## 1
Amino acid sequence: MLKKHGELQYKVGRWLYSKGYIVAFEFVLPNGRRADVIGFNENKEIVIIEVKTSKGISPQIKNG
């Protein structure tokens, strides 16, 4: 299980790279907002991915 936001960013970046994209992390956009992962390929396609993580809730198991 992934525990950190950065781990998920890294995995997404590796996946984009494997698809032929040049990848950047924490990229500042012209409007001042920050993209978690951004990719750009030779076809001039841009992909922006916002990563969200949360702590899972463990179910409580009751005996009997």
## 2
Amino acid sequence: MNTSTKGPRALTFAGIASAVAAIALVCCVVFAFTWNQSVLAADGSPGPRVTLAVDAPGDGLVEVSTSDRQRVYITYPTGDRAPGLQGEITVHAPTGERVEVLVPDGGTEVSQGGTSAHVVGHFEPAAAGEYRLEVPATTDGSAATVLVQPTTSEYDGLGQVVFAVIAIPVAILLGAVGVVMGIWGGIRWNRRAVAARTSHLRLTP
């Protein structure tokens, strides 16, 4: 009887490697969908798609190049209550005309690196150009920063979707094959190890 464990060991480790590769592929899919979409970076600073950050009170100019909806967030230390503002956030178009900031029915909140960001509104730019954002002070005088981030347009995420459609089935296949290989390799490894010990005992006078 073949008592070498070299083949089963290789099969087991190949199965483990396949399962690890499947997990890594799933992580890549998640990362591809989230790395440039979050309003906050991992350290709590404004994310890569944020086009304007204004400390309250204050004002700033945001360059809008498309007609995509612009989300407005207020950021504050995680664990604190979202601060209120002494007035409305106002937005003025390049023409000077005031643009209505619509308040959402339910705000989305995200937290990263000790900072939380809460959606307080959005506005629809009529044309490209510089839009002025005016932010009032907080009601309790606490520090807060208002961020502007454009929404993802219809085709911006097409690459991520195509990648996910290909990667997810591959990850499932790799995971399934890895589990089967790992289990079967482990069983054979154990059997041959037992057989090798038994054979050694028989040969020992």
## 3
Amino acid sequence: MSEGCFRLRVNGRDHAVTAPADTPLLTVLRNDMGLNGPKYGCGAGQCGACTVLLDGKAARACVVRVDVAAHHAITTLEGLARDGVPDPVQQAFVTAQAAQCGYCLNGMVMTLRAFLNAVPNPDEAALREALRYNLCRCGTHVEIMHAACIAAGLPPNILTGLHPQPPSPPPGESP
């Protein structure tokens, strides 16, 4: 496919990019713009590591073509902070220490930001559903859900499913 020039609005700034129309947005963001928040995970839109916001909605940048992205406002992880102050979702991940290897964090943060834009007062079940298609390979799910609850403004006691209680002894037995 021949190259074209595309104007992209990324993190509030305009950029001109020359690339084939079918180039994945992720490639342009990382290779041409040096934005390393979105990660290459699967290349098939399945894992969520490459998630960005297109007009405030979560989109998998590895399967969004640059010619399609040119018609939308694009926000990456780098564009969430304002004047050096982290977005509340980013801050919640810091507060909850919800990172291990960090590879999935871009997708978790961006998906959660898009979800909270659309559903500002979710319950824990809605948070779990919103994040269910973002993969974490190192098992930081408990901390990620804690961060999601913090970002959503849920009280600490809402974390009932995160720290299961030991089973009760059978009737008639003492603990």
## 4
Amino acid sequence: MTERPNGETVPTPTFVMSFDSIVADAECRNHTFLEILKNGMKKHTEQQQQSNEKTAVQPPTN
């Protein structure tokens, strides 16, 4: 139980995990986060390239 500043007591859950579980969870989260970043950067780069292609000056055709 945890006591709030106003004196109220609230239940406080406690979780027990092994160190290996914590490390495995962190590795999974880091991998997922990196994949999200890579996909976001790739999408942004592709959009920039498409935008640059649309605004590029085309040479005159004869």
